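Human: I would love a firmer grasp of how sequence relates to backbone shape in proteins. Take your time, and here it is.
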Amino acid sequence: MKICQCGNSIPNRIKIDGREYVTRNRTKCLLCSPFKKVRIPTSKEKKRVAAREMYQNFKRTHGFDPIWKRRQERRQYIIDLLGGSCQICGYNICLKNLCFHHMDESTKSMNIGTHGFQFGTSKIFLELLKCVMLCHNCHGEVHDGIIPDDKLLLASMVVKEKVSPLLKTGWPVSMRKITFAPVV
């Protein structure tokens, strides 16, 4: 039999109104948490629910997701900063086909992709220093060993040259504020 934090035992089964109930998954005794009673949410849970509702209302009234928009703007800024094309073959037709390849997988602390741009400035830029921007075709060829490492080293030097100054300054002022225009 389990023991509750108050010291009372928690039975495995109880009989209420002639019906038997299994209570082995309970963490609190029947005195601390009466059977079949509605649990009252904590203030922290209420705040989380309120914040989520406010976020959903914002998306409905403005017609877009501000978090998704900020991530896309950050990704676009980095792609433009690194030349807007694959650093091996120059592919630039569809920017969704560009990805960030880590030069050394052992130093990788996070993926940089759509969700990687949710982190802080310094974390993103430090991770970018370890990456090269490639199209998916070149990325596959790098992993298969078709593209030599010396081409990747040249591309990584370009990335370091362009990203290193941003470690001190952060995102440009135009990227720090998102303007919101309601949908009419």
